[in-house]
């Protein structure tokens, strides 16, 4: 799943957070910038993926609530899992 935010100008530093804690890239999280477009890619969604994700530029913040739903109850496998995002721009 990828969250994306396009800014009005390129080369503006941003901060991605998950439930208020800054996110660092790792094997399951990729953060990229392509000009004005900032992206965070969350790989292999699990129950721990569910959270409020924010991108901040100074005082401006955009939020996305990520909900993970699954049809299976077995937590060692994830067939039929879905990821939904609800975005809200806070200005």
Any idea what the CATH superfamily is called?
Immunoglobulins
Q: Largest sheet, if any? A: 5 strands, antiparallel
- Low-pLDDT regions: 72-76, 84-91
The total number of structural domains is 1
Q: Just give the CATH class.
A: Mainly Beta
Structural class: mainly beta
**Helicity, as a percent range:** under 10%
CATH topology: Immunoglobulin-like
Give the radius of gyration. 14 Å
Helix count from the secondary structure assignment: 0
Beta-strand residue percentage: over 45%
Walk me through what this model shows.
The chain has a single domain, classed as Immunoglobulin-like (Sandwich). It is built from no helices and 8 strands. Residues 72-76 and 84-91 have low confidence and may be disordered. The strands form 2 sheets. The protein has a 5-stranded antiparallel beta sheet, with no helix packed on it. By secondary structure, the protein is an all-beta fold. It has strands at 2-6, 15-18, 21-22, 29-34, 37-42, 51-57, 60-69, 82-90. A hairpin with a 2-residue loop joins strand 2 and strand 3 (21-22). It starts with a strand and ends with a strand. 0% of the residues lie in helices and 54% in strands.
Précis, in short:
This protein has 91 residues and is mostly beta strands. Helices cover 0% and strands 54% of the residues. The chain is built from no helices and eight strands.
Which SSEs are present, and which pair or pack?
Blueprint: E1 2-6, E2 15-18, E3 21-22, E4 29-34, E5 37-42, E6 51-57, E7 60-69, E8 82-90
Antiparallel strand pairs: 1-5, 2-3, 2-6, 4-5, 6-7, 7-8
């Amino acid at each position: 799943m990828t969250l994306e935010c396009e800014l009005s100008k390129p080369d503006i530093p941003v901060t991605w957070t998950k439930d208020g804690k800054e996110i660092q890239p790792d094997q399951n999280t990729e953060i990229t910038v392509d000009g004005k477009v900032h992206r965070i890619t969350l790989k292999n969604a699990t129950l721990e993926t569910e959270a409020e994700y924010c991108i901040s530029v100074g005082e401006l913040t955009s939020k996305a609530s990520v909900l993970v739903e699954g049809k299976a109850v077995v937590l060692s496998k994830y067939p039929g899992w879905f990821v939904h995002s609800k975005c809200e721009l806070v200005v």
